[in-house]
Amino acid sequence: MRMAEATLSEKLAQHFISLRLESIPEAVIHATKLHILDSVGVLLAGSHLETGKITYDLALSFGRAGSAAEVTLPGTQGKVSLLDGVMAMASASHCGEMDDIHGGAATCIGAMIVPALLGLGEKHGVDGRTFLEGAIGGYETTVRIGLAINGPSLFGRGWWPSTLCGVFGVALAGATLLRWPVEKAVNALGIAGIHAGGMLTGGGEGSTARHLTFGRSAQTGVLALLATEQGLKGPTRIFEDPRGFCLTLCENPRWDYLERLDDYFLPEVAFKPFPCARQLHAGVEALLYLLDENRVSANEIHAIELGVPRGVAAMIDRPHIMGKRAASLASGQYIMAVTVLRGKLDLDSFGDVFLRGDGVLRLMEKVTVKASTALDSYFPRSWPGRVRIKLIDGRSLAREVLVPKGEKENPMSANEVEQKFRTLAAPVIGEGKTRVLLEQIMKLEKLTSLDDLFSALRPGFA
User: Fold this and answer.
1) What is this structure's pTM?
2) What is d(CA 341, CA 353) in angstroms, rounded to the nearest whole number?
3) Cα separation values, 246 from 10, 17, 99, 182, 392, Å
4) Has residue 295 got a pLDDT over 90?
5) Left if phi > 0, otherwise alpha if psi is -120 to 50, otherwise beta: which for 394?
6) What is the largest CA-CA distance in the chain?
7) Which residues fall within 8 angstroms of residue 41, CB to CB, at 6 or more apart?
């Protein structure tokens, strides 16, 4: 009698749950540690931003209602339940728009995978090798699903590829961390899939609740694990069923991404050097080059044109942000204007002095976003941008960046990633604990306990 072919969930679970560090290329392991470090840094910084504080308070309010104190809220001394903690951590991780992303899959990943692993790891007690293996499985799963359904195509239909695909990555990362058998992992993938969601609605209005979508997706992945433990049954063919995840979202899925599992996509996941939507990074890079190379000041500029692929132009054409930080993060007009005014782009670029300042508002009126057919062929393999500056004296300056900083082809060095981490973490937990965290994460494979790592996530002396 012929045995039934394994489902896609079974293939994914079997492959990634059985992976062990000794069979994984050293370059992949090193990249994983850098992405964990980066994700912890953006989480700590996000915990002190307005939206991060609100989601932390939301999680703490559930605790006051009687939930168990199981996991740490990084950047604070507070502890909450696993589900509430993962929700708050993932929301805080994304709200600063500094989290990593795979452009081809259009999925931000670390902001969901790492908070979920931190919560599960603290509650259950795991070693560093297991943590790394869970992270690799979670990243790889999220990227592969985003590629299979052509994640970038979902932007135009209002779906958020990151939150749709992230539930699966979290579920499989957690199942790997907990050393589950394949059948339990498959069940968790099915439960996660039927609860997947997330819409882009509200970005232009400055809706801060959209960051909670990241939190809810990470929470859903963990909930799928808990529901499996309690005996709830999920679909085993969540991907390939005619009414399943892939065919619901994509007319012609690329099934090969879910079947051929021998290579690694994690080294392709990009770091973000700037705290803004990835669609704008190439433009920021080009603009900073022109400003520095030509010593241009704001009062010399007549107009700025930002060209981007047609697939993202509508998302970043936001001339009216109404002083709202959440809307400004993906506003081509605001990002170009504040970068000109300050000569850089960092978290301080989104303070009220700039969001409501006359200088930035006047410059925004000079910025136009243009859909460029010439850049279409590069997207979504890379997310390019072209900046043209017309000066009052009649001169015209132009710069094109086809591969923004942080991609594999235009990488941030390990030192640059570590410096980004220090810049984000130290104001929250102090220099001493920042050093401890850096040391702990970069030697994860040698740690038999993560207690020192979790201790370092809380403010105070090292």
Assistant:
1) 0.96
2) 12
3) 16, 22, 25, 21, 52
4) yes
5) left
6) 81
7) 98, 420, 421, 422, 423, 424, 425
β-bridge mates for residue 270, sequence order: 101
Interatomic CA distance for residues 118 and 91, integer angstroms: 14
C-beta separation of 128 from 450 below 8 A: yes
What distance, in Å, lies between the first and last C-alpha atoms of the chain? 63
Residue 4's pLDDT is what? 66
Which class is 8-268 in CATH? mainly alpha
| Contact residues for 358 (Cβ-Cβ < 8 A; gap 6+) | none
Q: What residues does each domain of the chain span?
A: 8-268, 278-401
| C-alpha 125 chain-centroid distance | 25
Q: In which order are the strands placed within the sheet that holds 396-401?
A: 367-371, 301-308, 385-391, 396-401
Per-residue confidence (pLDDT) for residue 202, from 0 to 100: 80
Same fold, 8-268 and 278-401: no
**Alpha-helix residue ranges (DSSP H) falling in 149-294:** 161-177, 182-194, 210-230, 245-249, 281-294
Separation of alpha carbons 272 and 420, rounded Å = 9
What does 264-322 look like in DSSP terms, one character per residue?
--GGGPBP-SSSS-GGGHHHHHHHHHHHHHHT--GGGEEEEEEEE-HHHHHHH--S--T
ω into 319 cis (within 30 of 0): no
* pLDDT, position 424: 98
Helix boundaries (H) for 303-442: 310-316, 325-328, 332-342, 352-355, 358-364, 414-429, 431-442
pLDDT band for position 462 (cuts 50, 70, 90): very low
Alpha-carbon distances, residue 432 vs 76, 77, 164, 169 (angstroms): 16, 16, 37, 32
Whose structure tokens read 């004296």? 393
Do residues 219 and 87 touch, judged by C-beta distance below 8 A? yes
Look at residues 140, 163, 159, 144 and name the one whose alpha carbon lies nearest to residue 248: 159
Q: Cα angle at 36 between 30 and 38, to 5 degrees?
A: 105
Alpha-carbon distance 343 to 420, whole Å? 18
For 278-401, which CATH class?
alpha beta
State how far the Cα of 150 lies from the Cα of 136, in Å rounded to an integer: 21
pLDDT digits (tens, 9 = 90+) for 43-93: 999 999 999 999 999 999 987 766 788 999 999 999 999 999 999 999 999
